[in-house]
Write a structure and sequence with these properties.
Helix content is 77%, strand content 0%. The chain has 127 residues and is an all-alpha fold. Helix 1 runs antiparallel to helix 2.
Length: 127
């Protein structure tokens, strides 16, 4: 008769490393959502205020271009800092010998940052 192989449970240390890695991924995704919100709100406020300003002809103390740019820059800064923090955490895991797969959250964060840079360019150059 063939014996049925019994799966070997991972060690407690391996499970702890995996939980830590997944916590880094979740944290970066949360910061990516925050950065995306700031970028999209900044661009939306700029466009909405620009449309309203065109109809009324008035000028605000802080224009929509400056406010939108500030929100987009804040979102980009959040993405950069969170990505650097994530990279440092993953590097520490690799330093202790953990096999850490490439981060999909980091790929998404970079893609959102590229889109944010594009939005900032549109606001700055008034498109």
């Amino acid at each position: 008769m063939n014996a049925i192989p019994i799966p070997v449970a991972p060690s407690a240390n391996a499970m702890a490393v995996e939980r830590t890695r997944l916590a880094y991924e979740r944290t970066l995704m949360a910061w990516t959502r925050t950065g995306t919100s700031l970028i999209s709100f900044g661009f939306s406020i700029y466009k909405f205020a620009d449309i309203l300003q065109g109809k009324s002809g008035g000028r605000a103390m802080l224009g929509p271009q400056a406010y939108g740019s500030a929100m987009i820059l804040t979102g980009l800064l959040a993405l950069v800092v969170a990505t650097l923090q994530h990279h440092a955490g993953v590097r520490e895991l690799r330093a202790i010998g953990a096999k850490v797969p490439p981060s999909l959250a980091a790929v998404v964060a970079v893609a959102v940052a590229i889109l944010g840079i594009g939005a900032l360019g549109l606001v700055v150059f008034r498109q």
